[in-house]
Amino acid sequence: MMRNWFRTGTPFIWLDAAAISLALIAVLGLLLLVMWRGMSHFWADPVYDMGYDGGRLIAEFIETETIPAARLPDYGRTEGTITRHLVKTGNRDILGADFRWIYDEKITSRETPADVLVLERVEWGNFYGYLKAVYEQDKLVAEGYDAHQALQERLQRVTDLREEIVRLERKEIGEINYELERLRLKQRRYELDGELTDEVQAELDAERAGFDQQYAELQKRLQALYTDIGRDSIVVTVMDGSEINMPLSKVIKAWQPNGMTFFEKLGFYFESLWSFISDDPREANTEGGIFPAIFGTVMMVLLMSVMVTPLGVIAAVYLREYAKQGPLIRVIRIAVNNLAGVPSIVYGIFGLGFFVYVVGGSIDQLFYQEGLPAPTFGTPGLMWSSLTLAILTLPVVIVATEEGLARIPRSLREGSLALGATKAETIWRVVLPMASPAIMTGLILAVARAAGEVAPLMLVGVVKLAPSLPLDGNFPFLHLERKFMHLGFHIYDVGFQSPNVEAARPLVYATAFLLVLVIVVLNLFAINLRNKLRERYRALDN
Amino acid sequence: MFESAEVEAADSFALNTEAETLYIGLEELGDIGVRIDNSGRAIFFKTTDGEITDTKSIELSAEVTSHYQTFPNMLMLGQSDGTVILVEYSFDISYPGDVRTLTPVISYPLGKEPIEVDARGEALTQVSFYVDEEEAAISALTADGRLIYASYTLAESMLSDALVVEEDSIDSITIDYPVSRIIVEPGQQNLYVAVETGGLKQYRLRGGLDNEPTELLDGKVIAEMGMLLGGTSLIIALEDGEIQQWFQVRDENGVSNLTFIRNFEGQGARPTKIAMEKQRKGFAVADEAGNITIYYATSQNTLATFNTINEKVTHLAWSARAQNLLAMDESSTAHLFDVANVYPGVAWDVLWGEVWYEGYDEEDYIWQSSAANQDFEAKLSLMPLSFGTLKAAFYAMLIAIPISILGAMFTAQFMAPRMRQSVKPTIEIMEALPTVILGFLAGLWLAPYVENHLPGVFSFLLIMPVGILICAWFWQYVPNRNRYDGWEGLILIPVVLGLLWLSMTLSQPIENLFFDGNMQLYMSTEWGIGYDQRNSLVVGLIMGFAVIPTIFSIAEDAMFSVPQHLIRGSLALGATRWQTMMWVVLPAASPGIFSALMLGFGRAVGETMIVLMATGNTPVMDMSIFQGMRTLAANIAVEVPEAEVNSTHYRVLFLAALVLFMFTFVLNTASELIRQRLRKRYAAL
């Protein structure tokens, strides 16, 4: 009977089915994994005050695993299994590390006191402990039960001050620096042209003096702000009982997770999520937000779209509408498909060798001589990244557009031609508008591909930390030559190159989730659009 | 990049020589030359016309009887009273009025006072030395035939910054053969003595001189010899013009022996001078007939040979960047040559063949493009990288082929159309997932997970098919089962999940039962298999995941578009669905499947981020599934940002990209042609 069963082939069909379910599980599992790991990070987890191995620990549980005792030769025994937890104790400045493994067997007590305080700090990672008192300069402001309220009020003030400082430093002083640099280049330009007369020099000097004065004023204001921000401080106790005086200027956020209600936690969750999306990174990208990376990715993708759409559409229109179908076109088609299969790193190398050094180098020679030997365009940057990715995604757009053009019924074209329109008019007025959803599909797929591509960007313009965004208030507003940050590279960099991988891991997951979300949504949108389009043309055909 | 060097004679001019020239040298850009003669004068001259810009004198205590030079600009003078003086020259560079101005400086690294080497005060006819920051060694041959070896410790004086040279030991032996040159090996392991009548003697230096020299070279006569940059390789020029490279190689017993490595073609005339490049492993040899030949050690390249002098060359010197070569002939005429020799280290054999690198025991394929020290020999074999690329692709295909082809078979022919509508987009999403995310999961999540559940991963391979078959068997007894035909893929999801859970839960008991609780340790002690956390298995799993959609989509397409009348015909003849699949659909679609596999392979070969993050990026040539690798693509991504623009390393990386491109280009074109042909065939049907 078994033999007969095998002879029908049914078991093999089941095995085939298992392959597809395995693939489906892999995709969905992966998406869920990234989502869960990425999104759970912002939840205010309870913090435990534990008795452990004769001492005391204040920590959050991160991970638990059970492993055979043989794997941990340092542990007392080799028989059976050991359950151990990865806990986050924070206080890196005191303990040296944020995380440690603890053994379940050695935990003697476990409590969640409502007043455990967690601080997110400017440096040294999180702090765990208890709040004792709040001071303003040396004056005691609040102590004990009221202290948390006072802390939150003062923290708000400090936060406002900090924002003001950042605004001054970044924007205003940044502007002055930018102008000074421009003056320097202007002077060099005059020198190169041999037009640097005393008159011009005096003019430049006067301008420079003006900026210097502004700068001095700003410095004074900054000084005042720094004094203000250093006013408040708190006293906290850590797990070994010692008291620490901490200036509030070092604290970004304070909360008592164990005392929060569910809705407070929910509010806290979205607040954290928002600051993750909108803040600048801190501490070598392992903390803070990812705003510059999001911004850089979006800028790059937008520029790329602007470059790739006309190119791709024109190429597709030529291939489909104008070119005589013959061996040459066949070779071109093969080449286009081939282009889609070329490893992305090869595009990166091409971008670096051709765009950056050849094209960029020549642009520098021609237009930016005053900046040499420091290159302006002759170095990796936003412009070359988008151009490289435009070439990389070109086949996607061409193929999608061609498909769209091919599906437009003959009757429509013939109708247009019969009414006396020329071929160009027909294409421009009838064919392209009808094909525009197909073009959109191609573009969306291209954008999704570009947003996730990292390898070529590593060679042509991405950096781990860009000092300024490629778009700002300084003329000419859009700085194509600047290097930029990118979500995908951010994941690679923080996950693999950062000094504190463990602490950064949740942020990497969160970044990854964001990227996956964007790409999946874009793809679903494109697929949907394409399916709708197919149905519409099918209807037209009939 | 594979071009040989170009040499152009720039200037030549007569030098006024009152005393015999001992040494000539060139500064970094080759603008200023220096000539040191045996009256103790260092004469600096312009290399365009020989105009003397400066003259410095070295205080000698007696007549100079021998001399020896090393990197970068040191010269030791042996004197007739048994003492030596070490001299170093350098240039202070300043830019008054934006003009590069060089001021020569003479310094004495071992102090201005002559160092007494021979207590008997005999003249030193040969001298050789070695010096670094902490120690120095001097070896000399006296006029009465004694070979002396002295070692010194260098320390800063307590009171001033002056250097104190302390003598550690001094040893001498009497020898009874004529000597043409002696060389102390840096690191003070050996002393090489060239015998004038033929042969090379190697004395081991263990605290002192060991009077049992090893005889080498079979009595061939050495015309000239010297140490290559880095002080590891000995370059020997034989009388008949042949050049040989030797260095210490450890044998099976761990004993180092001076070993012949490779030879270079000579010009036939007796070599007179060897000049070593100061920053690379290149050297130039001049001979009696006036030939000058430029070689490169690692690549065994003979880069250029020229003879514009036609007279015996007595001195030869490189500028620091090896862009200029200064030669002096018998009649005291100096000749300056401009040398364009940018990529001497590249040759087909270097990139793809086994090369015997300095410090290695045998010829090998090695990729090691940079190191901390300056005099490092770049090892630019593309073999380990290509091997790693193919290995990664192989393991990825191992995972991807069964899943994608079987999955495509089911989706194309057996799946319910409604399910197919949602499966296809899911697979498309799978294809669109950024590889950086896959790589990151592979490195940070999967690698540690697999490490902890290794037995589980392998048992899953067994448990899954068995479990599926059992499930399929029981399915026969489910009532109304025909209603669910085509939905097996969905029905099996919980089953597969269950099996996965089962194997992971079983992982630990299995490990305890068969592997003493630690599979990695067990493997390495019992079977000698090493385990990397980020290994080929992890890469295979995740890159397989990345490749599946590529293969799946095209293979599914090929199978789905097999003309319906073929399938219906087969079914009508009484074949089962499976038989139709195997004997009708698969053969018809096989070119399409083949092209899908090629495309998938191409993708796996070119994949960068996954390999970069999921392996340790170690360029090893090892097929083990538990070891990592370094692929061409990952290597490019890692090293290009750090490589100096237009250096040899940088160019080789571009070449690697070209290799990668060619490889995928061939695969893609072939696959595309196959697909076009298939489409035509279907259209004909």
**CATH topology title of the largest domain in chain A:** MetI-like fold
Q: Termini distance of chain B?
A: 52 Å
Greatest chain-chain interface?
A-B, 77 and 96 residues
CATH class of the largest domain in chain B, please? Mainly Beta
On the 0 to 100 scale, the average pLDDT of chain B is 83
Query: Biggest β-sheet of chain A: count, sense, barrel?
Result: 6 strands, antiparallel
How would you describe the shape of chain B?
A: elongated
Q: How many domains make up the coordinates of chain A?
A: 3
CATH H-tier superfamily of the largest domain in chain A: MetI-like
* CATH H-level homologous superfamily name of the largest domain in chain B: YVTN repeat-like/Quinoprotein amine dehydrogenase
Total number of β-strand segments of chain B? 32
Tell me the β content of chain B.
25-35%
- Number of separate helices of chain A: 15
Mean pLDDT value of chain A: 83
How much is the radius of gyration of chain B in Å? 35 Å
CATH class of the largest domain in chain A: Mainly Alpha
